[in-house]
Design a protein that fits this description.
Elements (H helix, E strand, L loop, with lengths): L1 H32 L6 H8 L2 E7 L3 E3 L9 E6 L4 E3 L5 E4 L4 E3 L5 E3 L3 E9 L2 E9 L10 H11 L26 H10 L15 H4 L18 H11 L12 E7 L2 E3 L5 E3 L1 E6 L4 E3 L5 E4 L5 E3 L4 E4 L3 E9 L2 E9 L7 H5 L6 H13 L11
Parallel strand pairs: 2-9, 11-19
Antiparallel strand pairs: 1-3, 3-4, 5-8, 6-7, 8-9, 10-13, 12-17, 13-14, 15-18, 16-17, 18-19
Helix pairs in contact: 3-6
């Protein structure tokens, strides 16, 4: 009798569990059936008319098989604001000498010239592309290739090995400002045990950040990622050190440098590094980003900005030893007559600049204050 009661209870419990599982499956199916949320650009396109589009950069030149570039499609609306249309734009290479990857980067395939046909917001444009010297070898550089990865994934941060005393006995320069010191520590510390030249995949510098073995800093990048391939290639090439003849970064450029957007709009930033030998590289993937005012704009690790409120926010960008910034703004909704700014009292050119900024942000100038 007792056995039958227990068996009956088990059947009841199993029946309830089956019903709960079925209900959960139905709920998940319903969630999957929901339409995907519309991109912010689509909402803005429905509210504003795009009167012109521009491409950033205006042309592309590839001179190495390892090069990659990101392009932006910016639309100007009838309200004098801008919209990043890159994600909704249709980009079609006219030839087979370039290709897009899943992250939206353009890669060279073979030497030649072509154009990227762009269609966005009901308008069209073309981007000229030149690919040359792909057969020319490009030496792996610790400063240009490896150090930016150490910075991007946080190895040189003040909370990690870039701290004043390092971390767990291993010290790197803060934010990679001293590549020669970092190279020396990586190669000669602990008798060079961080590297296995015969089998790069067994190197500690790859095993730890991929969490193949225990790492106090957690997983920094997966096996097979771009970061993994670059460091593995550097090890396989014999881990060449920094040299005086290596091209050095001389300028850092972020695009767009300034943009007036709508509330809840999103904007991708593009970062280019200019080197002493005259060549330019897209370093958006390796740059570090931070917002000066999260209440106005948030930025993620890839340089994608989301506008949160009215005002202006600087987005700082640093790569290797240089720092620059972009200014992104959302004007306040107040409508102010131009005459208000024209009649405002001016004492010098600083007042001119302040009033111009206030007018751009739709902020009325304050009245003269008194000693009281």
């Amino acid at each position: 009798m007792t056995y039958r009661i227990r068996a009956s209870r088990r059947l009841q419990i199993l029946g309830v569990a089956a019903l709960l599982t079925l209900a959960a499956g139905i709920a998940l199916a319903a969630d999957d059936a929901k339409p995907a949320a519309a991109l912010p650009e689509a909402k803005l396109l429905a509210a504003y008319k795009v009167t012109a589009i521009r491409l950033i950069p205006s042309e592309l030149v590839f001179s190495s098989a390892s090069d990659y570039r990101k392009m932006l499609v910016i639309g100007r609306t009838d309200k004098s604001n801008e919209i990043d249309l890159t994600r909704t734009a249709k980009l079609t290479p006219a030839g087979d000498c370039v290709r897009f990857d899943e992250d939206g980067y353009l890669h060279p395939v073979k030497d030649g010239e072509t154009r990227i046909a762009v269609s966005a917001g009901g308008l069209k444009a073309e981007l000229p592309v030149t690919v040359r010297d792909l057969e020319k070898p490009r030496p792996v550089s610790f400063v240009r290739d490896v150090e930016p990865i150490l910075n991007k994934v946080g190895c040189t941060a003040g909370t990690c090995h870039g701290a004043a005393k390092g971390k767990n006995g291993f010290k790197l320069s803060l934010r990679g400002y001293d590549p020669e010191f970092d190279y020396d520590r990586l190669i000669h510390d602990v008798s060079g045990r961080r590297f296995n030249r015969a089998d790069p995949a067994r190197s500690l510098i790859l095993l730890k950040p991929t969490l193949t073995i225990a790492h106090g800093g957690g997983r920094r990048f997966p096996v097979g990622s771009v970061e993994y391939q670059v460091i593995s290639g550097w090890i396989a090439a014999g881990m060449p050190p920094p040299k005086d003849s290596d091209p050095r970064i001389v300028d850092l450029e972020v695009l767009p440098r300034e943009a007036s957007l709508r509330s809840e709009a999103e904007q991708q930033l593009l970062v280019r590094a200019h080197f002493s030998d005259g060549h330019t590289e897209d370093v958006t993937r390796w740059a570090k980003f931070s917002s000066g005012d999260d209440g106005v704009a948030n930025v993620d690790d890839s340089g994608h900005v989301k506008m949160r409120g009215h005002g202006e926010a600087p987005v700082s960008v640093y790569y290797l030893s240089l720092v620059t910034f972009a200014r992104l703004s959302v004007p306040f909704p107040a409508a102010i007559e131009p005459a208000v700014f024209q009649k405002a009292k001016r004492n010098n050119y600083i007042d001119d600049l302040v009033l111009k900024k206030l007018e751009t942000l739709h902020i009325p100038p304050s009245r003269q204050t008194t000693d009281a």
